[in-house]
Design goal:
heterodimer, A: 528 residues, alpha/beta, Rossmann fold, 3 domains, six-stranded mixed sheet, 18 helices, 20 strands, 35% helix, globular, B: 378 residues, mainly alpha, two-stranded antiparallel ribbon, 14 helices
């Protein structure tokens, strides 16, 4: 049932009532919350039934997090009411909401690293003496009910990200939560770990728990959930049963219009080497190798994707090539010339035009307190001769970039900090492309962007590829990497575990490469 | 419960209205205090106003006070825009005056006045730059805390001058009185409109600093380094070089203020040559939000307040401790207004919200929609 979505929120609310199951665990009615002039939530209706996994779907800034922070007692709504078993309830703090059985699993884990799993799970106890062995046994039994296999006496610090997440979920359950809110739980996991998480979540549902699953990954929602509520711009767009909806419809509800979601992958025109990296090792300030003996090459007109869990050495790789890392050994050749150990300014002076869009856009790529025009000249202000700045051409370039990339801003003198995430990304991308680079390095180019902006960015990157630019694309969404890139290099704890052809590879293969080494080590540690 | 929430950006007019009313409130508060001590606030304020604006003498004196404020504030603003918290303007000023005095000691006393002035100005700038360079180097190479470092450098400079006055440069002609010989008469700054040309130097500096920060590569680099060192590295800037040269420039301007005070007002070096101007100027720079043109106004207003206070000390026999309190209170309100321009207080109305919706049940949720709790937690 695909139909127009614009302006249908009122009728949707009525449909929602029909969709409601008989046993709502928690209902949120007409929730509104604003921050200054920003209406984060406007009359949102949302309810979860007992024994269901309910997806909360929406783009960044659609109000998902605000709504869930209200549910977990972090924010208090301006208006609206939360009902539990037909009685209005009020949460003034997370403590009160957990008393009502609502537990939140945040993206950033709230665990004490130096304590064991069981110690973390009983942290909220007020008792003085604790028999840890007995508690651990109890916890193991409890965990078994949800098919969770975990050693309660392992310190959290020794666990992998996915194990930490499991402990976090277990902790919330053990505190007595029957309604769990999971905020983008799959963002930090490999495909195999995601499968394991889903098994646990389904078991929880079968045991009568309610789960709110926040995500913007469509296939996960379709795979796991029973119902889905879509938010857009702080409003409820509608609630659907997963069995009665399609991905296409959900995207249309999220974005507000029908869009074609496919990424081009033009063929590489003429293979000619651009960048050769050999035996590259980067150490951090403590001498710990963040990148270990990396070797790869990148051709003109090629997009080389880099996959890997967060913190596998992606940042160091980008910064080493851009001349921003200090303890670097190995060789980096740009079209046959070594740029090893050169500072960014030296690289520019060698006549090498390389563009780098760092992960930290406001902290590194841009000066957040300056306006667009001032930011546009950040990379090339020094080329102008004489002591003065060439502000006129910077203004012209800024206007050009705003027009070309369709940046919505009141003007070129608008402070970049006040732009939206997508527009900030466009400013930096526009500036870097304007330099006519031979090599383009982008780290998480679409992080935090809505679907439309993301696809604009992919198009722009492809445009550069067609021009013969070599692109190093650091990504996090494997689906996108597989669609956009020519080859994908997988990083795992600072090592390259494989470079695969994107056209003939799948998520499973890359997932294996992303996690192989580390999970082996962890298994050893757990059994030891 | 009361919370603090961030405000939406105020328009310039509204913000200025808030600032003016804050100063008025400060005057009222100080007036209440005066009543308690036994002075008529209306008469006192009238006398203060007359003391500053009532005569050309008062005006000239105000400008005289404002000149060092303005020059130092300009110098400080360069360091501040790099987030180098230079609290050492006082010491840099003193060292500027020391270096300038040194020039008069090595040159024959009959040297041409203009030549002397130029050389003393250059020496003053070198002195200030040198004094700022020391904490600057430590900041750039070992990231020491510049606030404490520059603060301590003040006391070193002041005590050094004391040493010069009592021992090394003690004037033998002063018959045992520990003072340093005054600078040659021909090196005193000439007067234009009854005020030494320090005011022209200050205004030229305003233009130079404004253009430097806004229209030159050097100023751009300074601002980028101040905003984010990471970004500066990323853009290929030599952060250490930018930092050190900026700090030296900041110190040089403060040192020049020392020369202006020496050649324009005191004519003799002493440990009291700074007179706390280096600290007052920090407030001037900050209140002007590091904008060079605004500093002209703010430094004059500060000077006018000080001149007014000095007048009532004389005419009304009000003790200086009381005038200090008056100045302090007005300043306190003025600074406080900056807080209210950026933030506001929000009354947390949870209780009323809960009771209202509980009484009417869930059907009357709309009624509680009026309650605004807005604002993010910052």
């Amino acid at each position: 049932m695909i139909k127009s979505v614009q302006g249908c929120s009122e009728t949707e609310n009525q449909i929602k009532l029909d969709l409601d199951d008989k046993f709502p665990a928690i209902e949120m009615h007409d929730i509104s919350k604003s921050f200054g002039a920003v209406h984060a939530n406007r009359n949102i209706n949302f309810s979860v039934s007992k024994g269901e996994i309910h997806a909360l779907l929406g783009e960044n800034g659609s109000g998902k997090s605000t709504l869930m922070n209200i549910l977990s007692g972090i924010y208090f709504p301006d208006s609206g009411v939360i009902m539990q078993d037909g009685i209005p309830v009020y949460f003034r703090s997370p403590k009160e909401s957990i008393k009502h059985g609502i537990g939140m699993v945040h993206q950033h884990f709230m665990l004490v690293e130096e304590l064991t799993a069981v110690e973390n799970c009983i942290l909220n106890r007020k008792s003085v003496l604790v028999d840890l062995k007995k508690e651990a046994e109890q916890l193991s039994k409890f965990a078994h009910r949800y098919n969770i296999a975990i050693d309660p006496l392992t310190k959290v610090r020794k666990m992998s990200v996915s194990e930490k997440q499991t402990v976090e979920i277990l902790k919330v359950l053990y505190m007595g939560a029957s309604i769990l809110v999971l905020d983008e739980p799959t963002a930090v996991l490999t495909p195999q770990e995601i499968d394991r998480l889903f098994v646990i979540l389904r078991k929880m549902r079968d045991n009568g728990c309610s789960i709110v699953f926040i995500s913007h990954k469509m296939n996960e929602v379709m795979d796991l959930c029973d119902r889905v509520t879509v938010l857009r711009k702080g409003q409820t767009i509608g609630t659907r049963r997963i069995s009665e909806t399609t991905q296409h419809e959900l995207i249309e509800m999220m974005v507000g219009k029908s869009i074609e979601l496919s990424i081009d992958r033009p063929k590489i025109i003429n293979k000619e080497n651009c960048l050769k990296v050999r035996n590259l090792t980067v150490r951090d300030a403590f001498g710990f190798p963040r990148l270990n003996d990396i070797t790869f090459s990148l051709d003109h007109g090629e997009i080389l994707g880099v996959a890997g869990l967060a913190g596998s050495g992606q940042k160091e790789l980008c910064e080493a090539i851009a001349g921003l890392q200090k303890n670097v050994i190995g060789t980096i050749d740009f079209q046959g010339t070594s740029i090893m150990g050169k500072t960014p300014r030296e690289i520019i002076k060698m006549g090498i035009s390389m563009s780098f869009i760092p992960e930290d856009r406001l902290g590194m790529g841009l000066v957040s307190t300056m306006d667009i025009a001032d930011n546009i000249m950040l990379k090339d202000y020094a080329f102008h001769s004489g002591p003065f700045l060439d502000r006129k051409s910077a203004r012209m370039k800024a206007k050009e970039i705003i027009e070309r990339l369709d940046i919505s801003t009141p003007g070129i003198h608008h402070v970049v900090r006040k732009l939206s995430g997508g527009n900030i990304q466009k400013v930096i991308l526009g500036r870097e492309i304007n330099l006519n680079p031979k090599l383009l390095i982008t780290a998480y180019a679409v992080r935090g962007l809505d679907i439309n902006s993301s696809y604009t960015i992919y198009d722009l990157i492809n445009e550069q590829k067609m021009k013969g630019v070599a692109v190093l694309f650091i990504g996090e969404d494997l689906d996108v990497l597989l669609e956009l890139c020519d080859r994908i290099m997988v990083l795992n704890s600072g090592k390259v575990t494989g470079i695969v052809e994107a056209r003939s590879s799948g998520k499973e293969e890359i997932g294996m490469l992303m996690s192989s080494g580390s999970s082996f080590e962890l298994d050893n540690e757990v059994t030891a | 419960m009361i919370r603090i929430a961030k405000k939406d950006d105020l328009s310039g007019l509204k913000a200025n209205l808030l600032r003016v009313s804050a100063v008025l409130l400060g005057m009222i508060a100080a007036g209440i205090l005066m009543l308690f001590i036994g002075f008529d606030p209306v008469v006192t304020y009238r006398e203060m106003f007359k003391g500053t604006f009532g005569s050309s003498y008062g005006l000239i004196n105000s400008v005289n006070i404002a000149i060092p404020y303005l020059i130092i504030a300009l110098g400080i603003s360069i360091a501040f825009s790099m987030k180098f918290w230079n609290i050492g303007a006082e010491g840099q000023l003193v060292m500027g005056a020391v270096f300038a005095t040194y020039v008069t000691r090595i040159l024959p006393p009959e040297t041409n006045g203009i030549l002397l002035m130029v050389l003393m100005a250059l020496a003053g700038m070198a002195g200030g730059a040198f004094w700022a360079l020391i904490p600057g180097l430590f900041k750039a190479f070992s990231n020491t805390n510049e606030t404490l470092f520059t603060l301590m450098m003040n006391y070193v400079a002041i005590k050094f001058t004391l040493y010069l006055r009592s021992i090394l440069w003690k004037d033998p002609a002063a018959k045992g009185f520990p003072k340093i010989a005054s600078i040659p008469v021909q090196s005193r700054l000439p007067k234009v409109f009854g005020i030494h040309i320090g005011w022209i130097i200050a205004l030229i500096l305003v233009v130079i600093v404004f253009v430097l920060m806004k229209y030159t590569k050097k100023g751009y680099e300074t601002r980028v380094v101040g905003a984010s060192e990471n970004t500066a590295h990323y853009a290929g800037m030599n952060v250490k070089k930018v930092l050190i040269s900026g700090i030296m420039l900041s110190g040089a301007i403060c040192g020049l203020a020392g020369m202006v005070k020496l050649n324009g007002m005191s004519y003799t070096l002493s440990e009291a040559i700074g007179g706390g101007d280096g600290f007052t100027a920090i407030i001037v720079a900050w209140l002007a939000q590091l904008s060079a043109p605004v500093m002209v106004l703010v430094s004059f207003l500060f000077a006018a307040l000080k001149q007014g206070a000095q007048t009532i000390e004389l005419t009304m026999k009000i003790p200086s401790s009381v005038t200090d309190i008056i100045q302090g209170m007005i300043l306190f309100f003025a600074l406080g207004s900056e807080f209210f321009i950026r933030y506001r207080f929000v009354l947390d109305s949870r209780k009323s919200h809960i009771s209202s919706s509980e009484n009417k049940g869930s059907s009357a949720i709309e009624s509680s929609g009026k309650i605004n709790e807005g604002g993010d937690h910052q």
